[in-house]
Amino acid sequence: MPDVAIAAPNEAAADAGEQVARAGGNAVDAALAASLVTMVNEVGLVSLSSGGFVTIQPSGGGAPYTVDGWMDMPGRGGGPLGGGTWDIHTGYGGGVDITIGPGSVAAHGSVAAFEEAHRRDGRLPWREVVAPAIDVARGGFRLSAASRYYLEYVHDSIFGWDETSRAAVHDLQGEIVTDLVVVPDLADSLELIATEGAVALHTGDLARLIATDVRARGGLLGPDDLAAYAPVTRPSLATRAGRWTLATTPPPTVGGISVAAMLGLLEGRPQGAWTDADVELMIRIQREVLGRGPASLLESSSTTHCSATDTEGGACAVTVSSGYFSGMIAQGTGIWLNNTLGEQELNPGGLHALAPGTRLLSNMAPTVGRHADGSVLAIGSPGAGRIATAITQVLAGIAGGLSLQEAVHHPRVHVHHPGRPDEVVKRETEEGLTMYYGGVGVTLVHPDGHLVAAADPRREGAVRLVRST
């Protein structure tokens, strides 16, 4: 039984990671269990109708790999192109236009990716990995600070048009609920996933309920789209930072490419604390890397991230998202459905412009790494277009000699819309850390077995260090 370090975006998710680690699970089991809990209690950020990426450093020094469980363009069975949608504007994230409704729902893939990662490198039975999420769904949960912050902007416009959704997040006065949230049918859906695996969401009862409801309300997602979906496993993209050899998400996602490019251009800076000159260099690099090419598109919605490492040399970094949410809960499932087709920055050609089965764009970059001394690390972040810049700055700080917590807490800089007329350089202060700049979770195991974890105060992050003795 390995010792395991866990970083998660909330206490319940961290508890889930600890629970499976104490049952004998490894870093993969812990990170997946924590992430499944976020699909229950991080309302507005992620759900079971989601996509994501899992990057793994196998124990024993095997080659790192990434399981791509991001979402596909639906429409394999034909359907009403452009139907079942409407646009809203919200001030969230500095102001964004969003397309929601049944027609914005893409083919999900995160649970299928989790199952594949677990098959390859998990240790506990799949049911035990899913069990903590079932408990949270059945017992109820309070909205996290990140969920509540987002819902303050969109609780009516996105989460208020569907009757089941409105009832789940509003009290009798129409305000955001402060009591425990129990979403009808969600625990039962998770029980099916625990028993049947991801097939429940692709060819089983849950797939049937989701596709039927989406189509009945004018959307495009159908049973053929869910049945044909498959996660893709690829060798991770290799890069370096100081004495760290890192592995991150490879193409076609652009998040890992962006992290690798920015780390390379930093050329080993900072050395210790960030200087003003280092920060100015970071700003120039963001303009260079993010201000042109496909990465310039990626100002998409929020996400959640969990990291875990263990004393057998394993590391697992998991990032998942459901977009801004379509607003609907599929009848009989308790599952809020994604709106990834409606993320306008990620779909510049239009809502349904891509061919059915095409994998959509993503900026996620869950990353693992090995130090020359044998230490193992896992890191990632939510934060929309700030994912790559947050991860880069924290990794550069760690490589330059900062402790994990020092690197995570350090104020960040982000160039919003680099190279455009509306470009804004946003600088964080030590007194004003905010979730706009991401929510990095990072874990580390030293060669002597010493565990370290740091979770971002910007998002109520939580850590656990689980020792077998």
From TrEMBL:
Domain of life (superkingdom): Bacteria
Leader sequence residues: none
Residue ranges that the Swiss-Prot or TrEMBL entry lists as coiled coil: none
Keywords, ordered alphabetically: Hydrolase, Transferase, Zymogen
This protein's record includes keyword Hydrolase: yes
InterPro entries named among the record's database cross-references: GGT_bact, GGT_ssub_C, Ntn_hydrolases_N
Entries under PANTHER family matching the protein: GLUTATHIONE HYDROLASE, GLUTATHIONE HYDROLASE PROENZYME
UniProt record similarity statement: Belongs to the gamma-glutamyltransferase family.
Protein name: Gamma-glutamyltransferase
